[in-house]
Amino acid sequence: MNTVRRLLVDLRAPVARHWNGGDAFRTALFNALSFSFPAGEQFFIDAVRLGAQSLPDEQSERSDAELRGFIGQEATHRRIHALFNQHLFAQGLDNRWEARIRRRARRLDGVDARAGVGVTAATEHLTAILADYLLAQHATALAGAEPRLRDFWLWHASEELEHRSTAFDLYRAMGGNEKWRRKLFFVVSVNFAVDLCRQTTRNLWRDGSLWRLSTWASGLRVLGGRNGLLRRCAGPWWRYLGADFHPAQQDGSAGERWLAAHAELAPPLGANG
Known about the structure:
The chain is mostly helical. It has one domain (24-261). It is 69% helix and 0% strand. It has ten helices and no strands. The chain has helices at residues 24-52, 57-90, 97-107, 113-141, 147-162, 166-173, 178-207, 213-224, 229-239, 253-261.
């Protein structure tokens, strides 16, 4: 079940320029991801709403609560990251990724609704992979980060794992086929990787850290180290291409444990306190 929660973390207080443990590369990478979320989450919300309208009434009733939870979580992520991004704008960073997301979303206007849901399912798998990585490696990926910002990112990662199956199940319920599921995943993966690299590089350039040896050394560790992103995420990426793949096969227990242990920071909407 996708539970909509309130994040009780102060994101209005100023954010340090290199908030992620003083590491320019790790900070720029996470900032780039944050820049993608407001427009990206809105696309997911719109795609899922449109896709749900095509379901037969009986099927729609069964999935209604899960879809409402998904939309509620994504709306919260969109709002919270917009708050965080205001600090990045104040530091002189600019968001080039968002415009590319909006352009691609416009290309799907009037196209079969399964395309938007398929793109959403593909992107949700990528974010679930990143979420699992972050929860497993947060001691290094967020080493030295201010506690409120560490909690902010781990909360988001945990909810990404919680709703990892929603768009995928909707795509199948709409009659989406396997050929297009895989094709959309390749396209989304390429766009996501290129955009993440471009925005991270731009963040470093605007920050004045792009040509520092320490920045490149950190980038090599984060991406190519023994527990780096590329090594840890390659296997889960390939699994999406399997004919018998389902997101529920991915272990979401790390997110469940974090949410249970930090219930006071992210209580369900409507809970007292």
